[in-house]
Amino acid sequence: MAQWRSLAESLGATEVTSYLASGNLLCTPPGPHMDFDRTLQDAVQARFGFFREVISRSGEEVSAALAGHPFEEIDPRFSHISFLHSAPEAEAVAAAARLETGQDRWQVIGREMHLRYANGAGSAQMKEAAITRSLGVTGTARNLNTVRKLIELAGN
User: Which CATH class is domain 59-154?
Assistant: First the structure.
């Protein structure tokens, strides 16, 4: 994560910090966040030799996603928000809705996919990767504990 933070700083980001070892980077980008996403993505490819998609949200957007979580929270580890690269098409959402999920639930709201696993992600009947593929967009999921911590670290 130190290299990840250093790379962001070298590209002009300020107030750079990270949380956990799963790619959670908090920073103030030097310009529009979508431009910085692509710049950081390209820099990762150039420096480390592999592609890693960068998906970002402002602190306000993360707070709004949490506030809009549509499912009852049984256990914050069982509820996730997948931050999608872009909002999926309505037809793709309808196609994904035909996938078997058992007692697990998901719902797309804008650029986020909200998930609730009945018995935790480790024993899920729902396959998030299959749903994301069906939606035709990439995403990165965090459980609600992590989402809350990111909001706290961002000062929102």
Answer: alpha beta
